[in-house]
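The methods section describes the discrete structure representation at length, but only in general terms. An entry of this sort, consisting of the sequence and the corresponding backbone structure tokens, reads as follows:
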Amino acid sequence: MGTISADFSGETVIVTGASSGIGRAVAVGFGEAGATVINADVRADPKDRDGDAAAGDAETPTHELVDAETGGRGVFVETDVADYDALAAVVEGARDLGGVDVMVNNAGIHESREFLDVEPAGYDRLHAVNARGAFFGTQLAARDMIDRDDPGVVVNTASTTSERAEWDHSHYATTKGAVQMLTRSAALELADHGVRVNAVAPGPVATEITDGWSERAADAVGGGREPPTRAGRPADLKDAYRYLASEGADYVTGEVLWVDGGDSL
């Protein structure tokens, strides 16, 4: 089977929520392609217990892993994406590294709770991180690209729950539905500025977005149907993000790319 390569040498990529899980794999993937990668997360230390998020020591912070095991450069900036000023500071700080070329709005939190049991505090927190964080991450990065007259790319992390209802996922799914429509709406309005906006929609992926999610993701795959035979791994996602951010996808915008091993069939 052939391989696809991408060269992001000399480019700066912000990946929010890159300390663990999908974000960690995506950050390492861009590092492997030569990028300077800024991990914007609330903590530097990974929390994935299975270590499958990326190659190397599962205890090594992502920015150190990028430095040690890729051709790129890693930077960590403590960031709560629900805080507008913190997001703005990350994007502004990227100018010291040449300016943000790719913005990956990946940071997310999860809570399983039946619809009738959802409480306002939990609802608000999920929407603040998953939806609001992605919205203003996209806006701030786009403004910066336009101000610098250097159009780049935004890639958001949606979910198959953007369109598929799942039990006890109502408040989580509404955040991911928002990310899907953010991606399409922003792509429409930013096209004249040359800024592309796309998203990746992972299916069940074994990460520790919440305790025990690895096991639940494995159990959830397929619901007894074929073709899925396993839960996804974070490393299964990284090339989707690199493709959407690359020149090879120059004619692709407003798309949500499902990467779920056929679980949605």
